[in-house]
């Protein structure tokens, strides 16, 4: 066979291989066809083995064409092998489906506990005719303090551990800043709640963070009395926390008069005394009071005609009590092992 003929023969062998692989291939004869073309004594491997017998220039050309043919055949073989394997495995799993087995459980996502309780709170208040309002988180000292009857340089300001920004604004220390903002834009009668984030310069521990949630409430009308405040807030802690016993204590907040704290009987010890309630049997949940006449004046509302009450629930605290969480930081950790328990 002269060299040209040999090269043609190599091409023919490659084409034959292609055709054979294409036509009658199945799992059994795939390896057989492969062996015929690339086995030890195959035509192509025989040429490879005797390549040194050719003259150097010819050797190069023949070598290239043999290698090329071998690579192509190898490639076709591998692809077919994969294909057959894939077909078998999918047949297999299909025939192996056992309809009596329980299915794979789909993960059920749910709201973060803070969001869930907030939604419940909003629903409860809106059912009593309250409307949800919002105010900015970065506040002026005027709305955070002055308009709430806490004048500049008055020691009462120290109660709120305040962050001050370089431009004089403050991340609000409480949602009470929304009170005057709301009364300036809406005319009484008013029933609003204002949920939102607040910020204080606190050292972080199990019950304090530098950021927390509050829900402010404001009720303004002509004949609002302290008994209205009591009725609504008692209903609130009963609804949200299942509280059985409540009590009101006098407290001082410059923007209410009188000012009160609503306590519930400790849900952990039933009033006997434990380390959650610091052995008092009571837990403070809602600071509140009757809107101070000065606050009405700042908002442009006549305090001789209108009365009102306000409250500010520390909301994260409420979530801790409701779900028996002993470390506030857990609620903000984003730890799924914790959050999946709710
Ligand atoms: N804003 C007060 C605080 O954060 C709570 C409060 C709100 C008290 C409304 C009375 C009335 O401490």
From TrEMBL:
Its main location: cytoplasm. Tetramer of two alpha and two beta subunits. GO terms for molecular function: ATP binding; magnesium ion binding; phenylalanine-tRNA ligase activity; tRNA binding. The gene is pheS. It catalyses: tRNA(Phe) + L-phenylalanine + ATP = L-phenylalanyl-tRNA(Phe) + AMP + diphosphate + H(+). Its cofactor is Mg(2+). Belongs to the class-II aminoacyl-tRNA synthetase family. Phe-tRNA synthetase alpha subunit type 1 subfamily. Its EC number is 6.1.1.20. GO terms for cellular component: cytoplasm. Mg(2+) binds at residue 257. SUPFAM superfamilies: Class II aaRS and biotin synthetases (SSF55681), tRNA-binding arm (SSF46589). Keywords: Aminoacyl-tRNA synthetase, ATP-binding, Cytoplasm, Ligase, Magnesium, Metal-binding, Nucleotide-binding, Protein biosynthesis. Binds 2 magnesium ions per tetramer. InterPro entries: aa-tRNA-synth_II (IPR006195), aa-tRNA-synth_II/BPL/LPL (IPR045864), Phe-tRNA-synth_IIc_asu (IPR004529), Phe-tRNA_ligase_II_N (IPR004188), Phe_tRNA_ligase_alpha1_bac (IPR022911), Phenylalanyl-tRNA_Synthase (IPR002319), tRNA-bd_arm (IPR010978). It comes from Candidatus Acididesulfobacter diazotrophicus. This is Phenylalanine--tRNA ligase alpha subunit. Residues 123-321 form the Aminoacyl-transfer RNA synthetases class-II family profile domain. It is an enzyme of class 6 (ligase). It is found in: Cytoplasm. One of its GO terms (biological process) is phenylalanyl-tRNA aminoacylation. It comes from the Bacteria.
């Amino acid at each position: 066979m002269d060299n040209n003929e040999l090269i043609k023969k190599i091409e023919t062998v490659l084409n034959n291989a292609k055709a054979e692989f294409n036509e009658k291939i199945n799992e059994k004869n795939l390896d057989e066809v492969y062996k015929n073309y690339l086995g030890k004594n195959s035509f192509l491997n025989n040429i490879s083995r005797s390549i040194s017998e050719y003259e150097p220039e010819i050797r190069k050309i023949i070598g290239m064409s043999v290698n090329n043919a071998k690579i192509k055949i190898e490639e076709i073989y591998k692809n077919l092998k994969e294909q057959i394997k894939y077909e078998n495995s999918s047949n297999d799993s299909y025939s192996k489906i056992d309809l009596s087995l329980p299915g794979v459980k789909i993960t059920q996502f749910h709201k973060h506990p803070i969001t869930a309780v907030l939604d419940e709170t909003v629903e409860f208040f809106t059912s009593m005719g309250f409307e949800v309002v919002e105010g900015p988180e970065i506040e002026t000292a005027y709305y955070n303090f002055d308009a709430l009857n806490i004048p500049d340089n008055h020691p009462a300001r120290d109660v709120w551990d305040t962050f001050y920004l370089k431009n004089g604004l403050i991340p609000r220390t409480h949602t009470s800043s929304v009170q005057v903002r709301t009364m300036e834009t809406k005319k009484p009668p008013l029933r609003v709640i204002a949920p939102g984030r607040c910020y204080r310069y606190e050292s972080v521990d199990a019950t304090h963070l530098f950021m927390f949630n509050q829900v402010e409430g404001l009720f303004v009308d002509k004949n609002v009395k302290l008994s209205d405040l009591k009725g609504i807030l008692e209903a609130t802690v009963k609804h949200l926390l299942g509280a059985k016993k409540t009590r009101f204590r006098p407290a001082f907040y410059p923007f209410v008069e009188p000012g009160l704290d609503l306590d519930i009987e400790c849900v952990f010890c039933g009033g006997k005394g434990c380390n959650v309630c610091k052995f008092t049997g009571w837990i403070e949940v809602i600071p509140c009071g009757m809107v101070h006449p000065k606050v009405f004046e700042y908002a442009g509302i006549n305090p001789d005609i209108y009365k009102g009450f306000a409250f500010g629930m520390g909301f994260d605290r409420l979530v801790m009590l409701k779900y028996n969480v002993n470390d506030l930081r857990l609620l903000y950790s984003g730890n799924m092992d914790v959050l999946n328990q709710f």
